Structures are given as structure tokens and as C-alpha cells.
Description:
The structure is a single chain. This protein is an all-beta fold. 0% of the residues lie in helices and 49% in strands. The protein contains no helices and eleven strands. Strands 2, 4, 5, 6, 9, 10 and 11 form a seven-stranded mixed beta sheet that branches. Strands 1-3-8-7 form a four-stranded antiparallel beta sheet, with no helix packed on it. β7 and β8 form a beta hairpin. The chain is globular.
Amino acid sequence: QVQLVESGGGLVQAGGALKLSCAASGRIDSSIPMGWFRQAPGKERDVVAAMNWSGRSTYYADSVKGRFIISRDNAKNLVYLQMNSLKPEDTAVYYCAAHPTKSPYYYTARTAYEYWGQGTQVTVSS
């Protein structure tokens, strides 16, 4: 089993920044792809950013490209999401997710991930 715990969410004004962290524990393999998703009230849970095991291959949703950065520290089993120039439409619960097996690829489909954190709320005020 793998446990994921997100932290770093909160309330921020538009234009501000937050850095989310995801701590992985349990039977975690540093070679597994990771992703960040978000879900706003009444909407689907959508991918925000994803990366392969090394972090060298990344994906960003168009809505966050150029503003968010996904990164990882495999030695510490940590994944980060640096969020800059935040907008009110970024308001959502943000989830960290882990793919179940080793892979050199990143994944954008929600169904590709087996393990999920409990989520952390990000609220951006205008």
C-alpha cells in the first residue's frame, strides 16, 4: 500500500503563490509516475500536472502552463506543485496521485492512478 499526504494549501490573493507538497510513504517506488489533479465544486477531477519517474518528462494543463511547476525529490519521496500567478479559477481541492507501477512515461488520465491523497484546499480570492 502507498499513502499520500498533501499539504501547503490555503487562502491566497489573486496573483499570489503557493507550494503544495505530497509526502509518499508505504510501499512506494521512486520510479513511479506522479500527478496533481484538482476538483472544483460541481466539476470533474482534472489533471493539472504530471511527471514521469525522473521528473524530466512533464505535462501541464493548458490552464496552468507557464504558471505551475511540478517537481519531485525521489530521495525524500516528495512531490511538489509550485503555483504562481494564481487566479480565482484555480480555486479547488488539489490531489496528489501515484501510478501503481514503474514507468518512464507520465499519465494524464485519472484512471491511470491507483493511489490518491486526501486533498488540500486552495482558495484564490479576487
